[in-house]
Write a structure and sequence with these properties.
20% strand, single chain, five-stranded parallel sheet, six-stranded antiparallel sheet, alpha/beta
Length: 847
């Protein structure tokens, strides 16, 4: 679009964007002329072909991802145009960092947030007015040079009078401070604006020199600057005014109290027709707002960077205080933190220039404590908002006033640092000047306070996170240690329980074969059943420990499900028969083959059947059916266990597979149990890729457990008819029994001799080694937990003896997990039997 009238600013933005509409509305309300273009390319074209003076600034609205791209295009068209980036809330800091590392953008830019729309017009108006004054400054200098050039031309007296009149009018009405010197360096012209800026009337200034503006002790480069102007070059410099209170040139008057400001001063030579320098023309523009805005922006950026890059507030704050004071020209900065124990403020950090005059004030500050409402920090703490004192020396509630006066400190302000709604500290600043409250400065420090508060929140959260991580790590370690100790305890418990079970089982077996007395036979049966039951409890307990640690490795092979079911039914026939239950098993005609651990599959079926036997009254009915089903994942087998027992209550059903969960039973707990059998079943089923469900209509309605397992595809092949293998012929063996438990050794020796074997017994390792040399054993039954020399070492030494090198070594131990089995195999054992020994398995090995 074309610019149809001179505008103060050019706005690059999307015409349909609500941000663009807001910006235009606020600019019109502030009476700032604006033209809208919808692309950086169009803006660059207009800047290259301006009508009139062109805009003083280009505003870049958010949207389309173009801030840096637009800025570069604008810079290519105009190196001097000022850029104003308008940012959405939360995007100020990311854009600021991007601009800092974008050298092609240059330094002539500002950033205005859209987060405060009510102040948007005011903020933009201030920027535009400052830029307009700067442009007027440049125009005035050009006009004066033009008039001077005319003055130098030969002209009639009337023309000279006209030119003089025009110069006088220009000097009088110009907004910029304008003054000039003659060839001798004395001030010859001093306009009204100069009086306002420098606080000197024309009467006071005329006849003086530029030394008031460039005192040698503050500007040692002054001779070089004036020499440069004298040689015909224009010079631009920036300074703070006034330098410090001092008498006006050539007078003894007390200087006026003037608010310090920043000036941009241009010194240009005044030439005659031949080019000889006749004096210096000076123009001074007040750039305080721009300079303060830049300094405040720099301070905020520096604080943000310090906080972002510092690991702790203790490290970040001292440098942050120094940066703020130096950037904003304040002379003292202090941080007060709340002591919750005493409910007072105490100073933890302070920054000051290295001036002896402030040492006393620093010492007083270190010793001071403030309650709520006491002193400047206490007032900011109590009210939770910034506090400003124009002159602390005259403030009735400033306990450090005397020390501040001796240090030359006057204006002060403080603002609270808040974490949420809680004030945790106060930042205070002091100046050697007497200053009225500055709303923009207070707003800046409100933002800095929020940054510090957010930093403290973040660091507190990080510290809490680290504490929780450390605590969690410690708890994990504690749990791991507790789990290790638990496993060690369970393993030791199993070992200690199995050791006495071994002689009990042996003795029961001897009773069975030594007496025909029916009463003794019944006693033997009770003992045998309880030993078997107790052995199963120990095995289940250890299995749960292994499964919860993920230490059970399945030994998978291809198995026939019907054979597994048959083996499981045989294994748990005794508890079923003891209660008089009727068990029916229905199997499909076609074979169901699957890949799994045969022992664990038997354990799954056996545990469910035993559970049904426990919770079904005597003489109950239990049914086990197996059938094939087709699923979306392939063929599967469904095993249904149905009983007419006591059933499951609705509140128990959802947690029936949880560890240590049991249904209510009679007070005598005649069947025992730890509530871990079904937990084992669920874990083992899932390790085989299957699922298990429990169903019940309620108490007294029986239960149904459904197990689903993946099976192999059907292969058409008849089940082979295999004749039972004939029993192996008996062969008398020389058996060396090494056992330190007297009862276990005696009962097992008696059993072995009853089976027809020749037996010798040793109760420790050295005795066994000595006995083996004369006995030449064919089989060694060796306990692992022996005194003096453990079973692993004995096994290793037996293998070195010629008399026992070929003997079959069978480990007898209460430890049955995979780790101990592997250790015994590595030690040279051929077999590993867990106490109480399965006597049928032992007979088979001996045969």
């Amino acid at each position: 679009m074309a610019v149809t009238a001179p505008s103060q600013v050019l706005l690059i933005g999307d015409p349909g964007s609500p941000h663009t509409a807001l910006i235009r509305e606020r600019l019109h309300a502030a009476r700032v002329a604006v033209d809208l273009v919808n692309s950086p390319t169009e803006a660059a074209r207009l800047l290259r072909e301006p009508e009139g003076q062109g805009p003083v600034a280009v505003l870049i609205a958010p949207g389309k991802g173009w801030p840096l791209h637009a800025a570069r295009q604008v810079r290519e068209a105009s190196r001097n145009i000022h850029l104003v980036f308008l940012t959405e809330a939360g995007q100020e800091e990311p854009l600021r960092r991007s601009l800092m590392f974008a050298p092609l953008i240059g330094s002539g830019w500002s950033q205005v947030s859209l987060a405060e729309p009510d102040r948007l017009g005011e903020r933009l108006s201030e920027i535009v007015e400052g830029l307009a004054r700067h442009r007027a400054h440049e125009a005035a200098l050009s006009q004066i040079n033009l008039q001077l050039a005319r003055f130098e031309r030969p002209a009639p007296r009337e023309r000279l009078a006209l030119v003089e009149s025009q110069l006088a009018s220009l000097l009088t009405h110009a907004d910029q401070a304008i003054f000039a010197t003659g060839p001798d360096g004395r001030i010859t012209a001093w306009n009204h604006a100069a009086e306002q800026v420098f606080g000197r009337t024309a009467q006071e200034a005329l006849g003086g020199t530029l030394e008031f503006l460039l005192p040698p002790r503050r500007h040692p480069e002054r001779p070089d600057l004036l020499q440069q102007v004298g040689q015909g070059d224009a010079v631009t410099l920036e300074m703070q005014w006034p330098h410090e209170p001092e008498p006006a040139p050539g007078t003894q008057q007390t200087p006026r109290t003037i608010r310090p400001c920043y000036l941009e001063v241009k010194l240009a030579p005044i030439r005659d027709r031949e080019g000889k320098v006749l004096g210096v023309l000076a123009l001074a523009a007040d750039v305080t707002e721009r300079r303060l805005r830049e300094r405040r922006q720099q301070a905020q950026i520096a604080v943000s960077q310090l906080l972002a890059g510092s690991p702790s507030l203790h490290e970040a704050l001292p440098r942050a205080l120094q940066v703020i004071c130096e950037a904003l020209h304040w002379d003292w900065c202090e941080l007060w933190q709340v002591d919750r124990g005493t409910e007072t403020l105490h100073c933890t950090h302070a920054w000051r220039p290295d001036l002896p005059s402030l040492r006393e004030f620093a010492a007083v500050t270190r010793e001071q404590r403030f309650r709520r409402g006491e002193g400047l920090p206490g007032r900011a703490w109590q009210r939770g908002q910034p506090e400003w004192i124009v002159d602390v020396v005259r403030d009735p509630n400033f306990p450090r006033a005397a020390a501040a006066a001796r240090g030359g400190l006057h204006a002060a302000f403080a603002f609270p640092i808040q974490v949420g709604a809680e004030v945790v500290g106060v930042l205070g600043f002091m100046s050697r000047e007497v200053q009225e409250p500055d709303p923009e400065l207070l707003q800046l420090f409100t933002t800095i306070s929020q940054q510090i508060g957010e930093y403290m929140i973040r660091k507190a959260a990080e510290a809490e996170r680290d504490r929780l991580v450390d605590e969690l790590a410690q708890r994990v370690q504690d749990l791991a240690d507790a789990d290790r100790r638990k496993n060690q305890f369970l393993a030791m418990l199993a070992h200690e329980l199995r050791n006495p079970l071994a002689p009990i089982r042996n003795a029961a077996h001897l009773l069975k074969h030594r007496s025909d007395d029916p009463a003794l036979q019944r006693t033997q049966g009770i003992i045998e059943r309880q030993v078997t039951h107790l052995t199963r409890l120990v095995d289940d307990l250890l299995d749960v420990a292994r499964i919860t640690r993920g230490h059970i490795d399945l030994r998978n092979t291809e198995v026939d499900l019907a054979e597994v079911i048959g083996e499981a039914v045989d294994a748990c026939r005794e508890p079923l028969d003891t209660r008089g239950h009727q068990l029916s098993v229905l199997l499909p005609l076609e074979p169901l083959r699957l890949v799994g651990d045969r022992t664990r599959l038997v354990q799954i079926i056996c545990n469910i059947l035993i559970n049904a036997a426990k919770y079904t009254p005597n003489g109950g009915r239990i049914q086990l059916t197996a059938e094939r089903e087709e699923t979306e994942h392939g063929p599967g087998a469904v095993l249904r266990f149905l009983d007419n027992g006591q059933g499951l209550s609705p509140d128990l059903l959802p947690r029936i597979f949880d560890l240590f969960t049991q249904a209510e039973r009679s007070l005598d707990r005649s069947e025992g149990g730890l509530g871990i059998g079904l937990t084992l079943v669920k874990e083992l089923v899932e390790q085989h890729g299957g699922t298990i469900e429990a169903h019940s209509e309620g108490l007294g309605q029986g239960s149904e457990f459904v197990v689903r397992l993946p099976v192999l595809p059907t292969v058409s092949r008849p089940r082979p008819e295999t004749a039972p293998e004939p029993p192996a012929p008996f062969r008398r063996r020389r058996v060396l029994l090494v056992e330190d438990n007297v009862d276990s050794a005696a009962t097992l020796q008696e059993l072995l001799e009853m089976w027809g074997h020749e037996v010798q017994v040793a109760d420790d390792g050295p005795a066994a080694l000595k006995m083996a040399q004369g006995f030449h054993p064919e089989v060694v039954l060796l306990d692992i937990g022996l005194p003096q020399m453990d079973g692993y070492e004995v096994a290793g030494r037996l293998r070195l003896l010629p008399e026992a090198a070929k003997a079959v070594l069978i480990a007898l131990t209460g430890y049955g997990d995979g780790g101990h089995r592997k250790t015994s195999q590595e030690a040279g054992f051929d077999h590993h039997l867990v106490k109480p020994v399965d006597l049928e398995q032992l007979q088979h090995l001996l045969t």
